[in-house]
Design goal:
Length: 354
């Protein structure tokens, strides 16, 4: 199968988006020019699993300009933009992805992208690596190596490496200064609030914003919330990072205490069950719950489903969970990456650097 996408007729819209971001990505543009001449990937097959939007599409086209045979798929069921996928197919790339994929469809797309038997993988979150060490182990012999984009994926890689179960070399893009200092901090900081504000059409100023996690992404989210006029509370289990948040001027407290205060909650930890049943029980009516970690496990949805008496679609990408006492807790983007599932992701200039 050459490709599996939802709407091939939307390619022109996707190309408009790609052409726009190209104007603000001089580093990738310079690489494209070099790759067209040197063809460093000639004869190589590359499988790419990324949040499939305009900037990552341009990266894929630049790799293709270097001579690579590419298969591109998503790294999150809600972050793929169908017009971008169509634009890449029209430009000759193999694409296996669509927005709103079920878990079964998502896994199928990952496997279809691996069917080209890649020499190199570009992973975002670790799903390709997981498949290559489980159901697709037969492909390991062809793998030269790859790279991992995000904090969550790097944590999964390091765990596998520590156990002696990493079968091929992987580069941690997330450890690059231009990634964690700029992409994680300024990119996440801006795009998270663009996603939240664009989805809710609500003001941030004057509200109590609870940021769970004070790594580089959490720093960016808190900084931009403060700049928007919010009263920012940070929850952090690492005592050194917690002290850093205090020194940066934020209130710091356990999530158990912050649960009854916050108007907006943003998780950026990469951890499981950050906001749980006992926290939902304390929250105000009308709170907003958003996640900016890679997987939809930080705002613990099974507990929210268990507690609610009714679910209501409040607005596109906002599900209201009505509690027994009448309170409504509003979950954005199904608890998935709010900056991508409810927005366009990081600014073009930031993505060009990372």
């Amino acid at each position: 199968m050459d490709s599996s996408i939802r709407n091939k007729h939307s390619a022109s819209e996707g190309k408009i988006k790609i052409n726009w971001v190209k104007q603000y990505m001089p580093l990738l543009n310079a690489l494209e020019k070099e790759f067209q001449e040197t063809k460093p990937f000639l004869g190589k097959r590359i499988t790419v699993s990324v949040h499939l939007e305009a900037k990552t599409a341009w990266l894929s086209l630049v790799l293709a300009a270097g001579g690579a045979e590419l298969a591109v798929t998503g790294s999150n069921p809600l972050s793929t933009q169908d017009d971008i996928a169509a634009a890449l197919v029209e430009d000759g790339l193999k694409v296996f992805a669509w927005h709103g994929a079920t878990e079964e469809e998502y896994q199928t797309h990952l496997n279809q992208a691996l069917d080209i038997r890649p020499h190199i993988i570009i992973d975002d979150g670790g799903d390709l690596v997981q498949l290559l060490h489980s159901s697709r182990e037969e492909l390991q012999k062809d793998i030269i190596g790859g790279c991992e984009e995000t904090t969550t994926g790097v944590l999964r890689l390091r765990s596998r490496e520590k156990e002696g179960k990493l079968a091929f070399p992987m580069m941690s893009v997330n450890d690059a200064c231009c990634k964690y200092l700029f992409d994680n901090r300024y990119g996440t900081g801006q795009s998270v609030w663009e996603g939240i504000m664009g989805t809710t059409n609500l003001i941030i100023s004057g509200k109590y914003v609870v940021v769970a996690g004070y790594g580089w992404c959490g720093k960016g989210v808190a900084m931009r919330a403060k700049g928007l006029g919010a009263n920012v509370i940070v929850t952090e289990v690492d005592p050194i990072k917690a002290i850093e948040a205090v020194m940066d001027g934020y209130r710091v407290m356990p999530i158990d205490e912050a649960a009854s205060i916050g108007d907006i909650f943003v998780t950026v930890t990469g951890c499981l069950k950050v906001i749980r049943k006992e926290h939902f029980a304390k929250m105000k009516d009308g709170v907003l719950l958003a996640n900016a970690g890679h997987f939809d496990v930080e705002v613990w949805l099974p507990a929210l489903e268990e507690l609610c008496m009714e679910k209501r679609l409040m607005r596109r990408n906002i599900m209201g969970y009505v509690m027994e006492d009448g309170r409504t807790l509003n979950l954005l983007a199904e608890g998935r990456l709010v900056n991508l599932a409810s927005g366009d992701g990081h600014p073009a200039e930031i993505m060009d650097m990372s």
